[in-house]
Amino acid sequence: MSVKHHESFSPAALLESADLDRRIVELKPAQCFFTQGEMADTVFCLLQGHAKLTVVTQRGKQTTIMLLSSGDIFGEESLTMVTAQRMATATAVNTCTALSIKRGEMLRAMHKDPAFSDQFLSVLLVRSMRTQADLVDQKLNTSEQRLARALLLMTKRGKPDEPQILVPPVTQETLAEMIGTTRSRVSFFMNRFRDLGLINYKERIRVHKPRLEAALLDQFAEV
Prior knowledge:
This protein is an alpha+beta fold. It contains 7 helices and 11 strands.
């Protein structure tokens, strides 16, 4: 069966429209989809909920490298080779529902349907570009700029014309891990962002997207 083309491209819709043997998995908060170092044999696509990718260094330090939202594909390292290992741990932040597709099944579908293969590879390319941008962000920008960018990335599922967007549930400790700083610095920046009218937060963070984007472009010189 050929992949249908959608005006509003969705990785989940792509996988659901393809001729794939897939199953639905449900995880409770803090449960793992997979763990760093184990054999990689499955690709996932998050349908509902939020998850995070974390890496533990050789010294035992854990770092959050990415927050995942509905529509995100992860575990793609399983497509590289039969003996591939997981490079990170994927953990459910809240209750999650995801598509689970075995390596062999995904490769079979990609070989069988060139249209599906092209679209899936474009998804992986976008993911690669995001990862590269994250590395540049870590090297060149200040902690405050990295926090602003991380918050903006978490608004990607909001509507384009929606000025205030609720981001996924995330703690200041996780934000600190993501941008490579301390929780106290994140708390300081969050208070500053709130005072500048860039965000609101009580139990959940609500981002004033146009304001935060403008402030980030201006490097917080003027708001």
